[in-house]
Amino acid sequence: LNKMVSDFLLLGRPITMNKKAFVVADLLSQIEVLCKQQLRAKNITIQAQNLDCVLSADEEQMRLVFINIILNAVEAAGEKGAIVCSAQKSSNPAALAITIADNGPGIEDENLERIFAPYFTQRPSGTGLGLALVRRIIEEHNGAIVAGNNPAGGAYFKFTIPQDAQ
User: Fold this and answer.
1) Calpha distance 123→76 (Å, rounded)
2) Residue 51, H or E segment
3) What is the pTM of this model?
4) CA 143, CA 162: separation in Å to the nearest integer?
5) Are 98 and 24 in contact (CB under 8 A)?
6) Which of 24, 29, 116, 129 could form a disulfide with 135, with the two C-beta atoms 3.0–4.6 Å apart?
């Protein structure tokens, strides 16, 4: 109930940006510590690829983005699941693209368009606010986010953040 109320309040409140440069790998290390109990309970590993890059964004807001996506991936992945976080320069050289993928069952095609809508959830204990908040944070950074399914199985979330816009 506490998380639901917090997410609801965050979704409706204006976001105050405090952009600064930080290393994505450092942020992911913090997230792993915060999510250690959930990861350990399902024996899930997080693999980092090319995360030694610098992201210019609001670090606290990006922490919320990573936590929401990673906890959804933990819920979707089975025992001994895997989550892969990777970064690369986007097709726009002034932007950084970050992908978080899991090896769970993926997202049903009919839900791909609705997954970021407020109150949409497939989980009995879900509020449907987490991914709506993620999209809002990314858009406040003048970025974009998409969700999809990997050909080999599992889902991915890919968001791109411009690095020249302050």
Assistant:
1) 10
2) none
3) 0.87
4) 6
5) yes
6) 116
